[in-house]
Fold this protein.
Amino acid sequence: MDQKFYDILKHFNLKLTPSIYGNGHINDTYIVHSQPDYILQRINKNVFTNPPAVMENIQGVTEFLRAKIIENGGDPDRETLNLICTVDGKPYYEDENGDFYRVYKFIDHAISYDLVENPSQLYNAARAFGKFQNMLADYPAEKLHETIVDFHNTKARFKQFTDAVAKDAAGRAKDVQEEIQFVLDREADCSVVVDAIAEGRIPLRVTHNDTKLNNVMLDAQTGDGVCVIDLDTVMPGSLLYDYGDALRFGGSSGAEDEKDLSKIYFVVENFEAFTRGFLETLPSITDEELKLLPFSIKLMTLECGSRFLADYLNGDVYFKVHREGHNLDRCRTQFKLVKDIEDRMDELNAIVAKIAAEVKNA
Ligand code: ADP
Ligand code: GN1
Ligand code: MG
């Protein structure tokens, strides 16, 4: 392994070997200890079928962000990802097996959390994601490739789910009938946001689409948001996807793969903190988007749970798994949260209305 990575890094003018790093579910991430440090990633080509298109998006977006950050008097080496090009000037290296590698500057003195520790982390993450969306508000969306088709198209996701059930590739459907029924019972939810976009009731924006807490770096000292990372899925989307997905993860009382479901419930304090940070930084939110905020958390959680379940049925071919039944455990935490959010929907709607009024009058 050492020689292989040494040879890869040589193409980025780095004569070093890396070590495995991070807890993402998709790409293979390594740290390159040097002065300064770097991040090396092998892009998951099973998930991203056109890696050059992913890299074109990331290069375009990070250059655009860099200019905005400089304009605002910020630090562009820390507040956006910085790609290191190969010695022949490309933003990636393709090896002889058709694997794609990229290198970023390592963001120092900052932490990405795999588990929420306190509501202020969510407040700071929300401000970072809100600011990220603001900075990209005038990005030419037509330049972006759709790196994963129908990524948050919940109607298409529902179809992919029922296809996985029908195919039952790993012969597991008989053991998870209750979980399958949980998704089938909620088919109507899958149309709400997709139809609102199609009918022009809510706007398309340039969004991140994968706003898990460990996709934002928070300052190690102050806790403030430093940089939004994991830009593989920056695409036109809804603000509701970024908000809902962030609270799918950040609103949970436990780990995404917790086996003891009695430990999993929706944490209202985290929801309040994230909502406040998001609304403070995104005054452009429309009334229609505002009304759908709590629903979007339920929707993104249902989508993610059904993706985990579909992957379990397909034989664990998409998300990285580290134990038997890992995707099923993940699916079950998501469905427990969906149920909890459903039961508390009126309360959550009232809280959003209250925070929105406070932010507006501040
Ligand atoms: P995945 O798509 O697999 O989730 P990420 O791009 O999110 O991969 O990277 C995985 C983890 O690696 C992140 O959660 C973060 O902890 C770390 N990481 C990624 N890029 C950087 C960076 N430029 N500086 C510091 N840490 C990083
Ligand atoms: C994946 O790449 P990562 O680990 O940040 C996934 C998200 C899921 C998430 C669930 C490209 O995110 O959509 O919500 O896992 N990313 C992709 O933890 O599929
Ligand atoms: Mg990630």
